[in-house]
Design a protein that fits this description.
This protein is of the alpha/beta class. It has three domains: 19-235 and 349-403, FAD/NAD(P)-binding domain (3-Layer(bba) Sandwich), CATH 3.50.50; 241-344, Succinate dehydrogenase/fumarate reductase flavoprotein, catalytic domain (Flavocytochrome C3, Chain A, domain 1, Alpha-Beta Complex); 422-493, Up-down Bundle (Methane Monooxygenase Hydroxylase, Chain G, domain 1). The chain contains 15 helices and 21 strands. The strands form five sheets. Strands 7-3-2-11-18 form a five-stranded parallel sheet, sandwiched between helices. A hairpin with a 2-residue loop joins strand 9 (178-185) and strand 10. The radius of gyration is 22 Å and the shape is globular. The structure holds succinic acid (SIN). Residues 58-59, 256-258, 346-347, 383-384, 386 line the site of succinic acid.
Amino acid sequence: MAADASLPDKTDRLAFDGVLVLGAGLAGLSAALAAAPRRALVISAEPLGEGCSSAWAQGGVAVAMGADDSVALHAQDTVAAGAGLVQPDRAALLTGEGPDAVAALLALGAAFDTDADGRLVQSLEAAHSRARVARVKGDQAGRAIMQAVIAAVDAAPTVTVWSGARARRLLQDRDGRVRGALIAHQGRLIAVTASAVVLATGGVGGLFSETTTPAAVRGEGLGLAAQAGAVITDAEFVQFHPTAMDFGVDPAPLATEALRGEGAVLVDAAGRPFMRDHDPRGELAPRDIVARAIHRQRLTGGGAFLDCRAAVGDHFPDEFPGVFAACRTHGLDPRVSPIPVAPAAHYHMGGVETDAWGAASLPGLFAAGECASTGVHGANRLASNSLLEAAVFGRRAGHAAAAFADPGTAPVACEPAPDLPDAALAELRRTLSREAGVERDAEGLGRALALIEVLAKAHGEAPTLTAARLIVSGALARRESRGAHFRRDFPQLAAHPQQTRSRIQPATPVEA
Ligand code: SIN
């Protein structure tokens, strides 16, 4: 590699002979393992298994392995949920590689629930035409899968992990190729050059004041990629989970959709079921419809509660230990009382546009997991397709990044991206939840955009602000309602589904 004289003097340098993986959820660790025999350096803000949404996932992995199911049916449901914006070939790839991905996780020791004959027990979730969600002890899938994958990473001689580390800028050569990243680690700033970078930094939930994801997951990776000039697709599509538990805590604990799959009912404060007023599919209507119904219930003062007493009752501690524990922590016994619920930002369908192997529009950059837009989620992700996507596309991105030929060029000078102070972040989060939440309109989105500009002027273009601007300006530009994006002022579906693709150059969004 050519020596680089242009980085600031205070910056240490490391030429890493392998793949640099930013993020340590299921997608990042899957990519790091798949890069073998090439080496992988994983950058994780927290100790492995903490601070990533994967470990918090309650649902499970959607996979067509039941006797009455097929990969084609799973793909069909995935395409239908995505409201016209799923790429059918990618859905086929995701669902087709699902059984192998689950077999690989089983082989690593993820103990999915099985029946007496050793077959996977699979549950029903909204918008699935078959019971196909493989679970672990009811609501423990994310934690169990991450434990198994972390054990594999610990044992892998090719993988090194820096925890307590954070990417502060993508390094690029003069032609825009991604050459590594500026990493803050142990009080130092280190310019790590690598043959390829896999971005697996998770979603944007932490940009909203009501979220089910770890607060630190707030679109930084997306913002860094956008600032480097990567094409971002469909940033406006943020999925709001209908049943975050409303105990007034941040982040909000989740009451998994599997509870509704088991027959739990949404009721108002008087105990009256209300979902059939909104959709004949009731509690198992697609997630966006249930989220909007609950949102309106709350706006009109009716209240919204998940009544699990008849459907789960005394089995709660065994069947949904995570939800049960969260309720008990907040003084509620779900065997006796309905759980207060509210929609909360849960998953980002949009992200860094990739091909089927996770390659982004910038050479040397790959993306996988929630920060990526791989074409499988469209406007509305099908429940429990996210862990599946992280496993399938994480592996693909790891393989492709490992095979990417290092151009050997030097990165140009760069400074770490600015950070948003806590008070400004809190204001941004409140504003996005209010103005870019379950229901949106031009006026509110305009207010959100104005705040983003004020904050950028005051504090610099923090990656979180870039991510927020992409979401809000995408939502403003999409003058229709589709999937998880609902415009009060444009409630109809446009006749021809279109993706939003944007590329920032360097600070002004332009059409790609
Ligand atoms: C849930 O368990 O309800 C969440 C699963 C998912 O987001 O796919």
